[in-house]
């Protein structure tokens, strides 16, 4: 394999990232000169060990000419800090060879450490999506079952009515959950579609009443639950956390998965900003606590304290008017209605 195009591609990517990043790389105090990658590490975590602003991680990693992809690292690899033209760089020594036998169907990416923990995000995406009112109301729904009671087991038959796209045989069963309203503008941003289970189509797509078989359930299926074609939602193991390219104004965390009152690292939140606001997957936002209103005893008047930065969140799924984000870092407990801004 010719490695020159790969090196050129990596160089172009590095230059592209450099064009996005405005701040200089600044190291934390007492960073290690060398570090051995461990199982469970993430590139984000390692970058946060070295950098005060970990979303600038592409500036830290140095292209290693011995390795096709310098961002593909494995447990046992040794990272060491060097300086190039006065700027810090991380380089790597391969701790072991990643070998695959002809009988193995294992992708090296499955063995490499990810940018961020993907397992939690993958499980969340299987259970949730955000839909607008038109898409939800126009989707097919369960009109009846082959029993009079609620359905509660795989193998039960249901009858659906509505639009079933041609060629689609696998469907998710969803129930409209929380309504997302922008707390500032009061605009309807969408509805939470919560996964109840799965079903497969047994009859033709164009029949007025369509027969399906339940293949998996999380809870009892009800009449009126929606039937949506299964989406192939493959997470990219190489998320590239970066700052947004546009100014995000009026951003808020409007909901949190699980309904908890305090939000911390690795919690998943809903933001009131989406594609129309310029958000993209992988972008990082700073989370701010709103400044308190206090009484100034000297001036004898109320004064608003400034917002204080309290965490970082990364966008991992974007819809038209809203987004899902995972909290990557929090210095104190966060709450719904905390602000999100450019880092």
* Element string (H = helix, E = strand): HEHHEEHHEHEEEEEEEEEEEEEE
Averaging pLDDT over every residue, what do you get?
79
Q: Strand order across the biggest sheet? A: 5-6-9-8-7-10
Ends apart, CA distance between termini: 40 Å
Helix-strand makeup class:
alpha+beta
**Coarse morphology:** globular
Radius of gyration from CA coordinates = 24 Å
**Overall domain count:** 3
Count of individual helical segments: 6
Beta-sheet strand percentage? 25-35%
- Strand runs, count: 18
Unreliable sequence segments: 1-23, 97-111
What is the helix content?
A: 10-25%
User: Major beta sheet, specifics?
Assistant: 6 strands, antiparallel, barrel
Secondary structure: elements and pairs:
Elements: H1 4-20, E1 34-36, H2 43-50, H3 57-60, E2 78-84, E3 87-93, H4 108-111, H5 118-127, E4 128-131, H6 133-138, E5 140-145, E6 157-161, E7 170-181, E8 188-201, E9 209-217, E10 226-229, E11 251-256, E12 268-271, E13 284-289, E14 293-296, E15 301-304, E16 308-318, E17 323-330, E18 339-341
Antiparallel strand pairs: 1-2, 2-3, 4-8, 5-6, 5-10, 6-9, 7-8, 7-10, 8-9, 11-12, 11-18, 12-17, 13-16, 13-18, 14-15, 16-17
């Amino acid at each position: 394999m010719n490695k020159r195009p790969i090196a050129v591609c990596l160089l172009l990517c590095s230059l592209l990232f450099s064009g996005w990043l405005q701040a200089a790389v600044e190291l934390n105090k007492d960073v290690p000169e060398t570090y051995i990658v461990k199982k469970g590490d993430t590139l984000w975590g390692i970058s946060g060990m070295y950098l005060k602003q970990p979303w600038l991680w592409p500036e830290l990693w140095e292209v290693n000419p011995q390795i096709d992809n310098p961002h593909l690292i494995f447990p046992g690899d040794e990272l060491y800090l060097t300086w190039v033209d006065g700027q810090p760089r991380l380089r790597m020594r391969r701790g072991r060879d990643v070998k695959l036998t002809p009988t193995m169907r294992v992708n090296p990416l499955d063995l490499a450490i990810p940018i961020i923990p993907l397992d939690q995000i993958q499980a969340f995406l299987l259970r949730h999506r955000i839909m607008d009112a038109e898409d939800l109301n126009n989707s097919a729904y369960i009109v009846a079952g082959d029993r009079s009671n609620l359905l509660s087991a795989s193998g039960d038959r249901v009858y659906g009515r509505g639009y079933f796209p041609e060629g689609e045989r696998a469907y998710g069963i969803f129930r409209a959950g929380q309504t997302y309203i922008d707390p500032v503008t009061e605009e309807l941003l969408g509805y939470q579609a919560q996964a109840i289970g799965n079903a497969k189509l047994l009859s033709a797509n164009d029949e007025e009443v369509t027969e399906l078989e339940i293949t998996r359930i999380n809870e009892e299926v009800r009449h009126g639950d929606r039937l949506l074609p299964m989406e192939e939602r493959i997470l990219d193991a190489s998320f590239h956390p970066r700052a947004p390219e546009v100014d995000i104004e009026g951003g808020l965390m409007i909901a949190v998965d699980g309904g908890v009152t305090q939000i911390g690292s690795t919690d998943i939140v809903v933001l009131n900003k989406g594609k129309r606001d310029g958000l993209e997957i992988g972008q990082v936002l700073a989370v701010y606590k709103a400044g308190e209103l206090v009484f100034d005893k000297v001036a004898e008047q109320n004064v608003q304290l400034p917002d204080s930065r309290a965490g970082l969140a990364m966008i991992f799924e974007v819809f038209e008017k809203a987004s899902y984000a995972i909290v990557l870092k929090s210095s104190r407990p966060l709450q719904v209605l905390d602000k999100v801004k450019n880092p």
